[in-house]
Amino acid sequence: MLLSSIDGRIPVLQVATPVPAGQKVLAADLQTAEVAADSGVGLIPESQEDQVVGHIAAVPLVAGDLMTRNKVGASAVFPPAGQAVAPAELKAGAFPAELKAGDQVAVQINAQDQGSPQVSQAPADPLKNAMMATVVSVKDAQQTGSVDVSLLTDEASAARIGQAGSNPVSVIVLAPGSAGGS
């Protein structure tokens, strides 16, 4: 049972530092957050930290996420059935500087510039052909200003992203809960 304070907020476990799927969760990876939430949400109270520490992250844990029981277990179940993780190198200017693990993004594969200037009209819905994904990790790439990202998305989109080759890939960070124009 969750105990609430006078203002209705309860102390629950929150991810303090990212933990990759398959790694053991340490006490240092967690912090406490005071939230107002229905008990049906499944948040883990601070008093039950022992149910998380020492267990395996079943999915990548992103800093700021609130802990629920389905995020830890005896083994990792990542990526989930029907999904895959695709790598992509994002060149400078093709991603927001604030890009981080956990962001929901729209992914575009852009045609390689052939050197001839083209004038094109902006599509009515710029996200129409975009693939929706969740950023799993972001690391500096060998090329200055670029980053290597891992993107969790459906299997078909992961295959398309993986086959982008030398075509530039760009991402747009979506607002939390956004359907990405779909």
Terminal CA distance: 39 Å
* Helix content, binned percent: under 10%
Unreliable residue runs: none
The fraction of residues in strands falls at 25-35%
Structural class of the helices, strands and pairings?
mainly beta
Radius of gyration equals 19 Å
Query: Helix and strand succession?
Result: EEEEEEEEHE
What's the overall average pLDDT, rounded?
Answer: 83
Question: Going across the major beta sheet, what is the strand order?
Answer: 5-8-7-6-9
Count of DSSP H/I helices = 1
Question: Quick one: overall form?
Answer: elongated
Query: Largest sheet at a glance?
Result: 5 strands, antiparallel
Number of strands: 9
Description of the molecule:
By secondary structure, this protein is mainly beta. 4% of the residues lie in helices and 29% in strands. The chain has 1 helix and 9 strands. The strands form 3 sheets. Strands 5-8-7-6-9 form a 5-stranded antiparallel beta sheet, with helices on one face. A two-stranded antiparallel sheet has the order 1-2. The longest helix has 8 residues, at 155-162. The protein starts with 9 loop residues before the first strand and ends in a 9-residue tail after the last strand. The model has no long low-confidence stretch (mean pLDDT 83).
